[in-house]
Design brief:
The structure holds four protein chains of four kinds. Chain B is mainly alpha-helical. Helix content of chain B is 75%, strand content 3%. Chain B has a two-stranded antiparallel ribbon. In chain D, helix 1 (4-24) runs antiparallel to helix 2 (28-52) and helix 2 runs antiparallel to helix 3. The chains are: A mainly alpha, B mainly alpha, C mainly alpha, D mainly alpha.
Chain lengths: 168, 614, 485, 102
């Protein structure tokens, strides 16, 4: 039992239980904070995979930006579920069916994916991630997708402004 | 002269058109237009008759239509038969039109009346000069139309419009037979032309079975038009029309068209199986006696004459059936005149007395001299008293029947002759003799009585032309080309028998109605049970048939909307139900869509995995 | 290439329709006059075509522009003795429909634009000689018809319009399948109707595509048991649309029978003639019996149309030259007569606001001209000699008699029933006493006479001198009929 | 040394939890959060593959960058739409909004 494995188990436990809490809790605020936690733990998993840059990105974007946005959204809308979690249902009527569906999905995925023989590289997973090399790859091989994604982000930005703007 | 015979038929057409297009303005003057056209036609007809005097035959034709190998022509075939018919039709038509000036005076649709009569005259003339069966059929239908229009002249009356409809539809039932006969003829000979058909039939290339079928189908048409049993029921109802129309169409001309058709196609009947002619003779004789019996029981003056007409037409058919072609035509001619005279006389009586029920009349001879005496002449003529027209033609028929050896027919015809004399004189005695019942009765104006006087001449004397004592001139003139004519010696036995029958009828009638020695009703009542065949059976059958037809169409209409359309709507409904059911899936709740998406993805993944990867 | 007169005939109404779109909806008079002009021009041009037509000359005035070489489709118009009367009839009835629609006051602009669009489709069907073009025009007819019934119709207009649309669409889809089957399996990769007919297609294929075409056309004719859309559509459609529906649209089906089935699948036709004839005879008798009992005048005439179109199908099924001539004559003549009847019913309805036979009566007293023409039309319809209906039925029955004698015998029984229901209708509608509420009816106006008189004259002319139409038809029929001869 | 399968299974479970959340939560914001969880499950997968299979070319990492970028755009737009709906309907409950009907 290496330290890596131990770390993996621990992180997995936190991530999965955090995700479960998000989809189970009746208090939305709690869910959002648990989301923050979960996202941070995922960033730790990235670190475990030697992708330090991505881990940083994960913390910045998901744990930071997205969570902040969601909190703002929560503030702007009035949720029917009260802070104490009592009262109006937070789940819809197809909860049981959803559970079955999700379980079925999991079974299918595991049944299909687990027996696969993956062509694991000899060097894995010890190669240190190199931000400089990554930048070179993005701006050489993937320059067009990169530009496209920036346009998409710009479009989303404008779209959000247009959508969320109060009509005069 | 004969090549202009078509002008005779065209002139009434012109009169018809002139009147039709000036319908509102022309009013009474319409009569003069129509009379002028028919009068000119009469003169021309006489000219045509003179032209064919020597037995010559003229034919003219022009193409009417072409369809594939079928070329139809219209044209004229002027032989003595056609020439005689031309004269008969124009004469009667002219006199009827003159007469109508008085009879129809004050009628608000007078101009329309003359238009229709003109159209009828034109169609009837076209019928008699036709050189082919198709043209004959076309004219045949057109006279039927005019008959419909004129019976329904007083269309405000339901009985009139119903009678018109009945006449048209019942004759049309016969016409379907005629039409099928035409089709059968055409399919076998590829022509409608009289002469061409005659040659083909003479060549013997057609089987007797085919010819018999054609002949019987033609006879079906003739039976419809000439009111032979069981298609006779329309004619008494047709008396709903104005009386002059009854005289022209339903006594003298149109109803004779059936006889004319059988006469025209007589060569087909002769070439066919003998059964064909036997059917003609049998139905003719049966119609003759049936109608005569019914005539005895009638109390409406026009109905008596109507049944008398049916009976006389049966006489003619019977004559044709026993091979008496010339006798039938002869009787047709004489009958046209004396029956027209009877009808016009009856019209005059109705005009003067204001009723049609004979028992509301009486002693009218004193009030209506001209009408009474001319009516007497016609009555004697139809009863068959020497030397009036009816005697000679009826005698001719009886002689032919005797010659054919068909003694049943002969017997029936003799009884009919007796009955004819009986019911005609019954009519005469009741109407014109005895006590005066209506003081207001008056003689008709001159415009009505002069036609009576003129018609009385041929009604009395025309028969002499065919008298065997005077050499059977008419018979020779009219005889079929090629058929060698046996110069008939006067058959005094037959003359004696027919005169005896007539005198017996008159005497019996005198006892019952002239002297009123016996209560008439008992006799009549006993006879009226005979007419069950007519009123109860045939008419009822037709009414039942009609009801059944209506029932069927009612059922079919229901079948159509419920079943046939039901299937159509059902298919639509089933599809609609399905789509409504499936459209409920589109609830609009996005999470349901998402779940379906996930499930579908799973299934797809499993399927792909098993099919492709494994 | 000379002046493309057929294209001009077909597409001139389209120009008219487009022009009306530029008017304001209030410019009603301008819209009407434009529509009238746009429909008169094709009529005038079709008369020019008739004058220039050589009866023995086969397909004439042909215009052919290659459309797609790879699939073998072309813009191919042409006219022969079969289509000539139909083109004339469509053009004439369109003009009359415009005149009869003069009183349309609701959404006038859309109405006349759709009417003209409908005319494009009708004319196009009769001159198209390429299957794709034929199909396009065939479908083009449906759409304006759907809206014309569905918007300007009577009470149950939506139901009727939808039924009409779906029913005939189902038919034409089947026809499309047949067209594609002929195209892919006929041996020649072409959509040319005439070329495919001339080349002939394999016997096995004939037996299959026959049914495709048959069903497609039978719905349109309509033959029993595919007829139930017709009474509903007629009852709901406005007068002028009924005129076009009965006068022209039904003929598209029988036109297809002759143009396609008779020439392309003659052997299959010969084999299945008895089925066609059976359905035709059933249509004749069944339609007539149904007409007898109807209470609504329009419904009665609709059923009588089913009955009369049965004669057309019988004539075609006979496979004889005479029968086919008769069938085309009947198409033409029935187009005139039914148009006349529907116009009259429409005019009477405008006055009395009822089409219920039992509520009418005695019209001869007050409106002698209208009632007189109704009598005339009824007599023409029941096949009175001297009027156009007779000669058509006569030729059909003689033709049928020579190849299918018993069918002809039964069919001729329909003549009596036809006489029965028409005369009965006349007795109840024009004869008898006039109900008091109609005491102030007015007789035909000049505008109405303008619509009626041309039809009356044509019925008479064709009836008295059938050669005037048959002269054009006959040569083409001889060329078309390959079956029995 | 963590086997690749562990990562795959872990991300699969995480993804499944996300699915459950998307299907079962009423609140639109929670649904969005669940979508985020699914996104991250995918990203973990990418990262793991990148580290184990293509460590040199870093294809998986680059995919993750793009996925994060589009995920950010998505959540922005999603929240904007939720705000819009909330303004119109006074609710953010998904099962009370059924405008996506035929």
């Amino acid at each position: 039992m290496s330290g890596q494995l131990l770390a993996f188990w621990a992180l997995s436990f936190v991530i999965l239980s955090g995700a479960l809490y998000i989809v189970m809790t009746k208090n939305i605020m709690h869910a959002v904070f648990m989301h923050l936690l979960t996202m941070s733990m995922i960033a730790a998993v990235y670190g475990l995979l030697h992708a330090d840059f991505m881990a940083a990105m994960q913390v910045l974007i998901y744990a930071g930006a997205v969570t902040a946005m969601v909190v703002f959204a929560l503030m702007l809308t009035k949720s029917q579920s009260r802070p104490d979690g009592a009262g109006i249902a937070v789940d819809n009527q197809q909860r049981g069916a959803s559970f079955l569906t999700a379980a079925g999905f999991l079974a299918v995925v595991i049944y299909v994916l687990v027996p696969q023989k993956w062509a694991v590289h000899e060097a894995a997973p010890v190669v240190k991630s190199d931000v400089a090399a990554m930048g070179a790859i993005i701006f050489k091989s993937y320059i067009l997708p990169f530009e496209v994604i920036s346009v998409i982000l710009l479009a989303a930005l404008i779209g959000v402004i247009v959508l969320a703007r109060k009509e005069d | 002269m004969a090549q202009y015979a078509w002008v005779i038929a065209v002139m009434p057409v012109l009169a018809f058109l002139i009147i039709l297009f000036t319908l509102r303005r022309i009013k009474e003057k319409a009569a003069y237009v129509a009379i002028a056209a028919t009068g000119a036609g009469l003169l021309l007809s006489l000219g045509v008759l003179a032209t064919v005097w020597g037995g010559r035959i003229f034919t003219y034709q022009t193409t009417w239509l072409t369809a594939g190998k079928l070329t139809l022509k219209i044209g004229m075939y002027i032989d003595p038969l056609a020439a005689v018919m031309l004269v008969v039709v124009t004469t009667v038509s002219l006199l009827v039109q003159i007469y109508s000036i008085g009879y129809m005076k004050g009628e608000k649709r007078l101009s329309w009346y003359y238009a229709a009569v003109s159209l009828f005259t034109a169609s009837m003339l076209s019928l008699v000069i036709a050189n082919n069966f198709l043209q004959l059929y076309i004219s045949w239908e057109l006279v039927g139309l005019c008959s419909y229009l004129l019976i329904g002249f007083w269309y405000e009356k339901k009985s009139a419009s119903s009678a018109a409809m009945k006449a048209f539809i019942i004759t049309r039932i016969g016409d379907v037979g005629f039409f099928l006969g035409l089709a059968l003829l055409f399919v076998n000979t590829h022509t409608f032309d009289f002469s061409a058909v005659r040659q083909i039939v003479a060549a013997g290339s057609l089987g007797a079975g085919t010819l018999t079928a054609i002949a019987l189908l033609f006879f079906a048409g003739a039976a419809g038009k000439s009111a032979q049993f069981p298609l006779h029921v329309w004619l008494p109802d047709a008396m709903e029309g104005p009386t002059p129309v009854s005289a022209l169409i339903h006594a003298a001309t149109m109803v004779a068209a059936g006889v004319y058709l059988v006469a025209r196609s007589f060569f087909i009947f002769e070439a066919a199986h003998p059964a064909a002619l036997q059917v003609v003779a049998g139905i003719g004789a049966f119609t003759a006696i049936l109608a005569a019996v019914i005539a005895v029981t009638m109390t409406d003056i026009k109905k008596v004459l109507a049944y008398s007409t049916i009976s006389q037409l049966g006489f003619m058919m019977a004559a044709l059936g026993v091979g008496g072609y010339t006798a039938a035509i002869f009787h047709l001619t004489t009958h046209a005149f004396f029956k027209a005279l009877l009808f016009l006389g009856a019209g005059s009586v109705i005009h003067g007395a204001g009723t049609q029920n004979i028992y509301e009349m009486g002693g009218l001879l004193k009030k209506m001299k001209v009408t009474g005496w001319t009516f007497l002449i016609a009555t004697l003529s139809i009863a068959g008293i020497v030397p009036l027209s009816g005697f000679w033609s009826k005698d001719e028929i009886l002689t032919e029947a005797a010659k054919s050896g068909n003694y049943i027919i002969l017997g029936v015809l003799l009884v009919t002759a007796f009955l004819t004399a009986f019911y005609m004189f019954r009519l005469y005695f009741v109407v014109f003799t005895g006590p005066v019942r209506d003081e207001h009765a008056h003689e008709s104006p001159a415009v009505m009585t002069y036609p009576l006087l003129i018609l009385a001449v041929p009604a009395a004397l025309l028969g002499l032309a065919g008298s065997p004592l005077l050499g059977n001139w008419f018979t020779k003139f009219i005889a079929l080309p090629g058929a060698e004519h046996i110069a008939a010696a006067p058959d005094y036995l037959m003359m004696g028998l027919s005169t005896a029958a007539a005198l017996a009828g008159i005497g019996f009638s005198y006892v019952l109605y002239g002297r009123r020695a016996v209560t008439a009703w008992s006799v009549v009542n006993s006879l009226s049970s005979f007419s069950w065949l007519n009123t109860t059976f045939v008419d009822k059958t037709i009414r039942d048939g009609l009801r059944v037809t209506l029932g069927i169409s009612n059922g079919l209409a229901r079948f159509d909307t419920r079943f046939v359309d039901g299937i159509v709507n059902g298919v639509g409904g089933v599809i609609g139900t399905f789509s409504r059911y499936f459209s409920r899936a589109n609830s609009g709740f996005i999470q349901r869509y998402a779940m379906r998406f996930v499930i579908a993805f799973m299934l797809l993944a499993v399927a792909v995995y098993f099919v492709l990867v494994r | 290439m000379s002046f493309p007169i057929l294209t001009a005939i077909v597409f001139f109404p389209l120009i008219g329709a487009l022009v009306t779109l530029f008017y304001k909806p209030e410019q009603v008079r301008l819209i009407k006059w434009t529509a009238l002009l746009a429909s008169i021009v094709p009529l005038a041009l079709s008369i020019i075509v008739i004058v220039g037509f050589h009866p023995g000359g086969g397909v004439q005035f042909a215009e052919r522009v290659l459309w797609s070489k790879t699939i073998g489709a072309s813009y191919y118009l042409g006219i022969d003795g079969l289509s000539l009367p139909m083109v004339f009839l469509s053009a004439l009835l369109s003009v009359i429909a415009v005149i009869a629609s003069w009183n349309i006051s609701v959404k006038t602009k859309g109405y006349f634009a759709l009417l003209l669009l409908l005319e494009v489709g009708m004319l196009g069907v009769f001159v198209a000689l390429d299957y794709i073009l034929f199909y396009i025009f065939w479908e083009l007819v449906l759409l304006p018809m759907y809206f014309l019934i569905g918007i300007w119709g009577g009470k149950r207009r939506e139901y009727a319009a939808l039924k009409f649309f779906l029913y005939t669409l189902a038919g034409s889809v089947i026809m499309l399948l047949a067209i594609l089957a002929v195209y892919f399996n006929g041996g020649a990769k072409t959509f040319d109707i005439l070329a495919l007919a001339a080349k002939g297609i394999p016997l096995g294929l004939q037996h299959i595509v026959f049914w495709g075409f048959f069903l497609g056309f039978a719905v349109k004719v309509p033959i029993f048991p595919f007829h139930t859309w017709l009474p509903d559509a007629h009852v709901e459609a406005p007068t002028a649309i009924s005129v076009l529906l009965a006068g022209v649209l039904l003929k598209m089906g029988t036109y297809g029978f002759i143009r396609v089935i008779l020439t392309t699948t003659p052997d299959a036709l010969k084999e299945y003639a008895w089925i066609m004839a059976t359905l035709a005879v059933i249509s004749i008798i069944y339609g007539a019996l149904n007409a007898m009992i109807q209470k609504d005048l329009k419904r009665m005439i609709a059923y009588s149309s089913i009955s009369h179109m049965g004669y057309v199908v019988l004539g075609i099924a006979s496979g004889t030259v005479i029968g086919t001539n008769g069938a085309i004559m009947q198409m033409f003549s029935h187009g005139l007569i039914t148009a006349l009847l529907f116009l009259l019913v429409g005019f009477i309805y405008e006055r009395t606001h009822t089409r219920n036979i039992s509520e009418l009566g005695g019209l001869l007293n007050k409106t002698p001209v209208l009632a007189g023409i109704l009598c005339f039309a009824s007599f023409a319809s029941l096949g009175l000699p001297g009027l156009s209906g007779f000669i058509a039925e006569f030729l059909v029955l003689v033709g049928a008699y020579s190849s299918l004698p018993w069918f002809a015998v039964i069919a001729s029984g329909g003549v009596v029933i036809t006489a029965g229901y028409l005369l009965w209708m006349l007795q109840r509608v024009v004869m008898g006493a006039l109900p008091d509420k109609y005491a102030d009816l007015l007789d035909a106006t000049p505008r109405e006479m303008l619509a009626l008189v041309p039809l009356v004259v044509l019925v008479l002319v064709v009836g008295l001198y059938p050669e005037s139409v048959l002269g054009f038809i006959n040569h083409s029929v001889v060329a078309l009929v390959k079956v029995v001869g | 040394m963590v086997p690749l399968q562990y990562y795959i299974i872990m991300s699969a479970i995480l993804f499944t939890i996300g699915i459950y959340g998307v299907l079962a939560r009423r609140n639109a914001i929670l649904v969005l959060l669940s979508v985020e969880i699914m996104f991250n499950a995918v990203n973990i997968n990418f990262m793991a593959f990148s580290a184990y299979i293509t460590p040199a070319t870093m294809v998986g990492q680059i995919y993750t960058i793009f996925a994060v970028a589009s995920g950010a755009a998505e959540i922005g737009i999603g929240l904007a739409i939720i705000l819009l709906i909330y303004r119109g309907r006074e609710t953010v409950n998904v099962d009370e909004v059924n405008m996506l009907k035929w």
